[in-house]
Design goal:
Length: about 200
């Protein structure tokens, strides 16, 4: 079996993230996707939503999807989350399976600064998502990375947080369950749904 690790802050989990998961499965790039919301990233600071809330949003967005699981080990961890630690643990839990590590071209550009980057490339083959304005690193071909140049869903989490804080709700590229969760818990300064809605965890 081929498994993919797809990590990130997911702040919030939006339609672009969901499109990545579906693309991986629909195009046979893996058999199962492990979505891992980060706890405290060593490279990003000041997430708007707590690890528990970001974990809940990912679970809400992906509920019921076959061949997808949401892993809470980084969200529950004390201290920074290191991808190499997570990947090694997952590989040990699924002996004999092959692994893919999914990342955007922007993250790939900084991969040499990641902890034990060489070991990461031993544990998993990279799947790099090309993005507008962000070139794929030259070294990607040397490590036999899979580069998805035809995949680009330009959704900005920063822009989503700004729009939610401004009171927007309609037409946002968010899974409905995620939007309900955001409004029910007042995340990102979002206003409650005046029409109510189903309770959120």
């Amino acid at each position: 079996m081929i498994r993919a690790l797809y990590g990130g802050s997911f702040d919030p989990f939006h339609e672009g993230h969901l499109a990545v998961v579906n693309h991986l499965l629909d195009h046979g790039l893996c058999d199962h996707v492990h979505v891992v919301p980060a706890g405290l990233s060593p490279f990003k600071h000041g997430n708007e939503a707590s690890p528990d809330q970001r974990l809940a949003m990912a679970r809400a967005a992906l509920a019921g999807l076959p061949r997808v699981s949401v892993d809470d080990r980084e969200a529950r961890a004390d201290g920074p989350s290191w991808t190499v630690t997570t990947l090694a643990a997952l590989a040990a839990e699924h002996p004999g399976d092959a692994w893919r590590l999914v990342m955007g071209a922007d993250a790939a550009a900084g991969l040499p600064r990641w902890r034990d980057a060489d070991r990461l490339l031993v544990l998993a083959r990279l799947i790099i998502l090309a993005r507008r304005g962000q070139p794929v690193p030259d070294w990607a071909e040397n490590v036999h990375a899979v580069v998805l140049r035809d995949f680009d869903v330009p959704v900005s989490a920063t822009d989503l947080r700004r729009r939610l804080a401004a009171g927007e709700a309609d037409g946002l590229p968010l899974p409905p369950a995620v939007l309900r969760h955001i409004r029910a818990h007042g995340l990102y300064g979002a206003r409650p749904d005046p029409n109510g809605g189903p309770p959120c965890p």
